[in-house]
Amino acid sequence: MSTLANQLVRAEKEELARAIRTLLGRPLVSAHDDPAAFDLVRKRRGPLIQWFDYFCGWRLIVEPRQGYARLVKVRSEPGATRPARRRRTTRAPFDRRRYTLLCLCAAELLTSPVTTIGMLASRVAQAAAVEPGVPAFEPVRVEERAAFVDAVKLLEHYGALTAMDGATDAYLDDEEAKVLYQVDTTRIIRLLAAPVPPSEAAAGTLLESAWEGGGPPAALTAEARYGAGEPSETQRALHARHTLIRRLLDEPVVYRDELTPAQAAYAASLTGRRILRRAAEEAGFVLEERAEGFLLVDPDGIATDSRFPDDGNHAKVAALLMLDLLVTSGPVSAARLDEEAAELLRRFPQWAKAYQSDGGGPRLAADALEVLVRFGLARRTGDRVAALPAAARYRVDRAAVQED
Fold first, then answer.
1. What is the structure's pLDDT at 403?
2. Ranges 33-37, 95-99, 306-310, 342-346: which has the least confidence
3. Number of domains in the chain
4. Coil/strand/helix, residue 34
5. What is the DSSP string of 161-199?
6. pTM
7. What is the Cα–Cα distance from 73 to 193, expressed in whole angstroms?
8. Residue 353 lies in a domain
9. 8 A C-beta contact, residue 355 and residue 364
C-alpha cells in the first residue's frame, strides 16, 4: 500500500508540475484546442489556483462547462517582448492599429451572442467615429480590412468567436463577404488581464500612455493587494516575492543587477532562497543560481513559448553565430555586427532569401540583436553591444574544435 501511495503522490506532483508549465506557456487553455491539457488543468485546478496565487499573485480561472482555463498573468514591468501576432502567414506582431481594432471588436461583441462580419465591421466603424483620439475605420480600404481581419482571427484563435458559416479570410478580398459568428462574451471579458478595469482608470491617462513605451498604461496594472502610499512590511515582502518569481517565470534569465533592492534582498534571504527553490521544484523547473543571476530551465520545453537556438529562424541562426564574436571580442559596435551579418549573407547566398537584398545585412543584424537582447544574452548601450554572462553557455570551445 505504501508503494502505491508513493506512486500516486509522485503522479500528482508530476501532473501539477506539467499543468503549471502548460499554463505558463499558454495562459489560455481551451478544451477544443487541446482536450488533454485542459483536462489536466481541470483535474488539478485546486492546487493550481493555490500555487499561482501563493508564488506569483496571479489568478487562475477554470471554467469546466465553458471548456477553458485562463491564467491572468500581470507583469510587474510592462514590456513589448510578447506582442499579439497575426494569425495569417506572416505571424508579424500587432501594430497600434490592430490593437485598436482588437479592442473595438471586443467591446462591440459584448452586446450580442451572434453577429456577422459585416455587422461587426459597421459597428466598429461607428464606435471609432465617436471615440476621441481613435482614427476612423474605413473598411473600403484593403489595408483596413486586413487589420480588421487580423483582429477578428485573433479572437477566433482565443475561442471568443466561432465562425458558424463562412471564413473570415474572405473579408480580405470582398467587403460584402458573409460570415456568421457565435460569440462567447464571457471569454472576451476573461481576455483582459488587468487588475484595474479600463472603465475605472482615468480616460486621459489611458489615452496619453496607451501603447506608448511598449506596454499597457500603469493605471491598469496597479495591484491593491500590495498597498498604496505606505505599504506594510508584509505587503512589501509579498510584493518582492511575487514580482521576483514572476520575472523568473516570464524572462529567459534574470540578472542580479536588474533586480530592485527589495527583490535582491528577498533573493538573498534564507526564506527567499527556500521559496524560490520550492517554486522551481513544484513546477518541474531546474533552478540555476549563479553569481550573476538566476535561470529557470524547463527540461521538457513545455513552458517555452520561444526557443533559442532555433535552426528554423534566420535571425536566431545569425544571433547564434554572432554570439561568439561578442563573447570573445568584448563589446563591439553596431556597425561591426552589420558587417558580420553582411559577410554571412555573402558566404551563404542561398540562405536567408528575405535578407538577400540591399540593406539586408543591417536588417539581419538588427533582427539578430533583438533576439539576443530578448533572450538576455546581450545588452546594447548607445552604439556598443556587449555579451551578458548567459551568453557563455553558447561559446565555441575552440580547443575541442581543433582536436576534432
1. 45
2. 306-310
3. 4
4. coil
5. EEEEES-TTHHHH-TT---EEEE-HHHHHHH---SS-GG
6. 0.86
7. 6
8. yes
9. yes
Q: Which long-range contacts (CB under 8 A, 24 or more apart) does 41-44 make?
A: 41/69, 42/69, 43/15, 44/12, 44/15, 44/16, 44/19
Strand partners for 254: 294
What is the C-alpha separation between 68 and 33, in angstroms, rounded?
10
Report if residue 88 sits inside a domain: no
Residue 115 and residue 61 in one domain: no
Q: Higher model confidence: residue 211 or residue 6?
A: 6
Give the Cα separation of 45 and 59 in Å (integer): 11
64 lies in which domain range? 2-72
What is d(CA 138, CA 142) in angstroms, rounded to the nearest whole number? 9
Distance CA 174, CA 187 (A): 29
Cα 375 to the center of its chain, rounded Å: 13
Q: Is the Cβ–Cβ distance between 390 and 291 less than 8 Å?
A: no
**Quick check: 384 and 332 in contact, CB under 8 A?**
yes
Whether the CB-CB separation of 22 and 37 falls below 8 Å is answered with yes
Check the CA dihedral 329-335-341-346 and report its sign.
negative
The closest of 239, 231, 302, 322 to 16, measured between CA atoms, is 302
